[in-house]
Fold these 2 entries.
Entry 1:
Amino acid sequence: MPTRDVVVVAASAGGLEALQALLAGLPGDYAGVLLVVSHIPAQSGDALPKILDRATSLPVANARHGERLRGGHVYVASPDHHLLVGDGHLHVRRGPRENGHRPAADPLFRSAALHFGPRVVGVVLSGTLSDGAAGLVAVRRQGGVTVVQDPGDAPFNGMPLSALEAVAVDHVLPAAQMGPLLAALALDEVSSRVAEPDATMRQEVSLMEGNHEPVRNHPGRPSPWPCPDCNGVLWTVEDDDIFRFRCRVGHAWTADALVEAQASEIEFALWAALRALEDRASLHRALAERARSAGRELSADRFAEESEDADRNIAVLREFVQAGRLAPDPEPEPGGERHRPQNATANGERGT
């Protein structure tokens, strides 16, 4: 009988320490497969595997396309590439970003849930925003086990809290306790049957696996908002558990990631407007000086007045932009005011 031996892990800000703690808790004879996605810079090479390798006796390496899954190994998503699994092999793809990230957790989680069903354990660690939440929903729907780092144990609790809000999580615990839990779950026998996934999951996994056919029949309906990555129409994805979107070419967003991206776009536009106002004020000052030196006082006064008006607008806009009023609420501190949902427990037991 198969066991719960396919573990997919998501980490972002503050997740390095959590990953190290998780790996350090695994026994040396752990026979499962760990697949790790962390939001890392595109130029980071194999730095993350080298760091994680010091925390465990299990082999750790960047995933290679077409490589066969082997028990007792840790595969890390390569920089600027999504990591997926299918038919017992790794798929490394440079597909459309999800939530502004590549690699992203949700594509890995969905592909594992599609192909391995109840054998999958989905783990969400420290990070901001919501990558991994939609993926955990897919894992749970296909009969897998869901695990989330206790928000009080996470340096950045946005990803853990988003996961807890999206799905009834089976285990909520500190990262240092996850290794023994994963070792115990790897002994649980499960059915070899994988539940038939819905059409949306199949479509999304196919898209990220490299099926370049255009998305002709979106499972949702068009929204009024454009995609921040390509400016195309975003379609709502029909998902009762989490409010999210995908565009025609495949970029995907959860609601809070979309809000964050919109805030960045607005800030960029405001800085551009501020620069244009600075240019306008500078030009009018130059024109005023030129007119005054030529004895054209009326023109000089008019240009000087235009420059003063621009300076007043600049002061107002600069104060607004620098105050950060367009940014989303700051990430709450661990143990801060955001409350753990009722379906979450902190002792590693299944939520109700």
Entry 2:
Amino acid sequence: MELYDGPTPISDDELRRRLSDKHGLICVLNDRITAGVLDAAPHLKVVANIAVGFDNIDIAAARSRNVIVTNTPDVLTNATAELTWALILSLTRRVTEGDRLVRRKGWKGWTLDFMLGTELRGKQLGIIGRGRIGRAVGEKAPAFGMDVVFAARGGRSAPDLRELSLDELLISSDVVSIHTPMTPENRHLIDRKALARMKRTAFLINTARGPIVDEEALAWALQERLIAGAALDVYEREPDVFPALLEMENVVLAPHLGSATRETRTAMIELAVKNVLAVVQGRPALTPVS
């Protein structure tokens, strides 16, 4: 067994070298498991990704080489849903903006109309993504008095959910929260056209994958006051952030904290290890990527 614990993501060359005689790999979302990497690992049987998403892995290349790919669903659902609500509340009630103001000694005392935010009660939460995390976020909405709608996409309906077309959701929602997987079709799903459809009083939240939102378009929409604010936990070119977003007070920026609780990260690691052990011992994987 080998453990890479360097301060930066493992390089492609080093990953290939280390995998040359390995039967299993446990990786994280910023490890790129390409066809070339798989070619360098002729004995590899399983790639266990410590994440729900698996856009960092060439699934087709793995399947063609009989390499099983697994992920870590379920165990991070609640943590990511909680983080989503933390971002919603921080943005709509201007918590992080106020924190920055206090720290730079810009607060001069209480006044009646100072830093007024937006209440959630009676507002509509639009969720893009009907998977475990999107549903978990929606389940918490009644506690804040919000109505929930989901985007109907992909030609499939979910009878247990209130659904609107993506266009209708963007037009009518007060908060839009993204929880859809990163696929080629979803790249820049939220672009200038989508942002221009949103209410000028609406807020955008992204805790899914960065490239789903066109960050340059988001900066434009905020500068033009087409939407009221945004909160991001993921970015197009992590860890880099589109520079204009860094200067905006109505933007909350978190460093990819969706699953970052001790309980959840421990559970994710344990599930990844169990998946590897199962496959190398000839048993079915617990959570294979279909």
